[in-house]
Amino acid sequence: MQKRKPIVAGQFYPGQHDQCVDEINQCLEEATITTSLPETIAAGIVPHAGWAFSGAAAALVFAAIRQQHPKVHTFVIFGAAHGYLGQPPAVYDRGSWLTPLGEIPVDEELANAVLESKTAVSDREAHNSEHSMEVQVPFIQYLFPGAKILPILTPPVEQAIHLGEIVGSIIASDEERKIVCLGSTDLTHYGPRYGFTPMGTGKDALKWAMDVNDKQFIDYALKLQPQKILESAAENCNACGPGAAAAAVAAAKTLGKAKGVLLAHTNSNDIMLCKMGTTSRESVGYAAIVF
């Protein structure tokens, strides 16, 4: 059986079991839910930076899901395509993934159903260098023992929306299991390091990145407008995983959701200032949303 080994353990999150658990608990302690949640949660949008920066925001989504659904059978993780040059979404359809918390199986039955729809292809190798799904997996292992995953690397193409709709339809037809979709994306990568400085540099430019550029993406997500998510990201560079987000939103819409709930919106610069007492010319946005 094929097993995907972790590639960013010890970098984006701790590489040892106990330290990993400790940091998850620390993220959960920082993750205070301050808004009303939907009665049921079908999907979420989670960030995928190092846990020191985006872990608390990601933890909010998982905490919200667990509050409403203590038992989740499978998480479909739509991942960003940072280095994937293929057009069709790529499904990790067999075997398991390894993290410092152990082994988690892939939902092969669900994978087969997705592949039969012809909206994605089987390509496990495409996942070997992509971190956006991996950083979510220890949260799932810790908070939802026994759950399975279905990782789908999702490029920012029109097919991402159709994929989300198909996955939503498959989930709707399964009356026995609770399946939740996650779209993994960070928001605006602003600053000279990222080659994106349309408003120049400095405090006001970073404020624009969060209050204007990020907000446009968030508004489209909350209104369940996957096409607008793709278009906005292509035009304004306000998400690195717009295909993943669009797929999760499309799935939520197919499952009857009419709006999203924003749990948190922050950025790496604010977190640096809070945790380290320093700032940077660069900043990356993070949002936690449930549907």
Overview in brief:
With 291 residues, the chain is of the alpha/beta class. Helices cover 40% and strands 18% of the residues. The protein has helices at 17-30, 51-68, 108-116, 137-143, 159-172, 203-222, 226-236, 242-254, 268-276; strands at 3-4, 43-46, 74-79, 90-91, 96-99, 102-105, 121-122, 148-153, 179-184, 189-190, 261-267, 283-290.
Record the SSE blueprint:
Elements: E1 3-4, H1 17-30, E2 43-46, H2 51-68, E3 74-79, E4 90-91, E5 96-99, E6 102-105, H3 108-116, E7 121-122, H4 137-143, E8 148-153, H5 159-172, E9 179-184, E10 189-190, H6 203-222, H7 226-236, H8 242-254, E11 261-267, H9 268-276, E12 283-290
Parallel strand pairs: 1-5, 2-9, 3-8, 3-9, 4-7
Antiparallel strand pairs: 2-12, 4-8, 5-6, 10-12, 11-12
What does this molecule look like?
The protein is α/β, with parallel strands linked by helices and about 290 residues long. The protein has a single domain, classed as Protocatechuate 4,5-dioxygenase, Chain B (3-Layer(aba) Sandwich), CATH 3.40.830.10. About 40% of the residues lie in helices and about 20% in strands. The chain is built from nine helices and twelve strands. The chain has helices spanning about 15-30, 50-70, 110-115, 135-145, 160-170, 205-220, 225-235, 240-255, 270-275, and strands spanning about 5, 45, 75-80, 90, 95-100, 100-105, 120, 150-155, 180-185, 190, 260-265, 285-290. The strands form two sheets. Strands 2, 3, 4, 7, 8, 9, 10, 11 and 12 form a nine-stranded mixed beta sheet that branches. A three-stranded mixed beta sheet has the order 1-5-6, with helices on one face. Helix 7 runs antiparallel to helix 8 (about 240-255). The protein is globular and about 50 Å long. The mean pLDDT is about 95.
